[in-house]
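Case study B.
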Amino acid sequence: MIEAMRALKHPDANEFVLERVFYALSDPVRLDIVRRLAEVDAASCGELDGGRPKSTVSHHFRVLRESGLVHTDCAGTTHMNTLRRADLDKRFPGLMGAILNQPVPDVKRSRGAK
Amino acid sequence: MIEAMRALKHPDANEFVLERVFYALSDPVRLDIVRRLAEVDAASCGELDGGRPKSTVSHHFRVLRESGLVHTDCAGTTHMNTLRRADLDKRFPGLMGAILNQPVPDVKRSRGAK
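Model:
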């Protein structure tokens, strides 16, 4: 029962809205999370938060979930996140490929590497 | 001199920021303007405003200009807008094509046709 209450809501692929996806990607922290998730099968919030405060990061993950970009599984105390690439490709053909193909500006790469 | 003062500022293509483009596209009114501009050489604000109040539309055009999506020329009292497709394609290869390829939801088509 507690597990059921903690399950997070995710929109179905046919409920995805293009403008909401763009809004989710309009923040550098969220775009960075999406780029990182595109390179792995799944990652915990801790692996993606870049040391930012939990309250800030929780908000970003909620926006990412509600847009359809990210799926979060609650596994005990750890939240595991995945990019919903198959759903996104089905709903918005070619879009995620084009977005993820954009080079990451050097300043962000070096900042991320710190 | 008056003409020079009225000239609007536009970022160079190398100053475009991906997140700002996504923010500009995160509003249905602005996404609609971009889609309409993609189908014509140029259009006045009046042809694109959908009868919305001037104050609202001015804000949307400013966001579109500042992101790099739209160029506005002041020709007398008329502002003519163009999509900066060549600059966008140079800065973000493949991105605008993928965005403009997304089908427009039926509800928006019928609303726009009214």
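The longest helix of chain A spans residues 54-67. The remaining cases will be described in the next quarterly update.
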